[in-house]
Amino acid sequence: MATFVLVHGAFHGGWCYARVARRLRDAGHDVYTPTLTGLGEREHLAHQAINLSTHIEDVAALLRYEDLEDVILCGHSYGGMVITGVAAAEGRRIKTLIYLDAILPSDGKSLFDMVGPEITLRTMATAGADGRVPCPPMAFFNVNPADADWVESKCNPHPIACFVEALRLGGDEDKVRHRTYICADSYAFEQPAQLWRELDGQRGWKVARLPGGHDLMIDAPEELSALLLEEVGR
Question: Which UniProt keywords are present, listed alphabetically (predicted)?
Fold first, then answer.
């Protein structure tokens, strides 16, 4: 039996992994789908001080308080920033890091640093007085038409401080034994596909590509679950 912790991306919540979590549990594994502070069912906790460190601690605390070991830790989109920070703090508890169409951050860089000035300026221009950024339209994520309205109804504004704070690595991330990058083949943002190409063939990395938009856990839950289950025996 393996332990999966699935971390959502910006604007989403743990709800987005329901289809994948059900398949993994049916296969006999433990699955955690935490919702980061200020999002999903925890939107009532939103405030301007929520930042990347808050979300890293959300997940790191889960690992500590649940006494989790040999974790397969998956982060979607912005969740790539979060799981990298968790690995820096709790790498000894993590077996595998899986970046799901995700940001792969460098030490000392923020999400805004990673996505570049055009997206940064466009995003900052939409920030409200409450320090949150509204969710983009579903067309941005290329969510399949059957699920687009449902996903839109669940998404929340995201605290902009999460995108501004730089990630600081501490060395514990080097204790993680395996890394995987999964790319969506129908997402207009170029960075995930570029990372997929760069990591293909690199020592220590496994790469895969799935059909679907950015929200692969919604567009391709069966295919994604199969890939995650491959990590159990790695």
Answer: Hydrolase
Q: In what order do the strands lie in the sheet with 3-7?
A: 30-32, 3-7, 71-76, 94-100, 178-184, 205-210
CATH of the domain at 141: 3.40.50.1820
What is the number of domains present in the chain?
1
Q: Residue 29 is part of which domain span? A: 3-233
Contact by Cβ (8 Å): 34, 3: no
Angle (nearest 5°) at CA 224 between 9 and 154 = 40
Tell me the pLDDT tens digit for each residue of 161-210.
999 999 999 889 999 999 999 999 988 666 777 777 888 778 889 999 99
Tell me which DSSP letter residue 7 carries: E
* Residues tagged active-site: 77
How high is the mean pLDDT of the chain? 95
Nearest Cα to Cα of residue 60 among 84, 38, 41, 77 = 84
Q: How many CB atoms lie within 10 A of CB 122?
A: 11
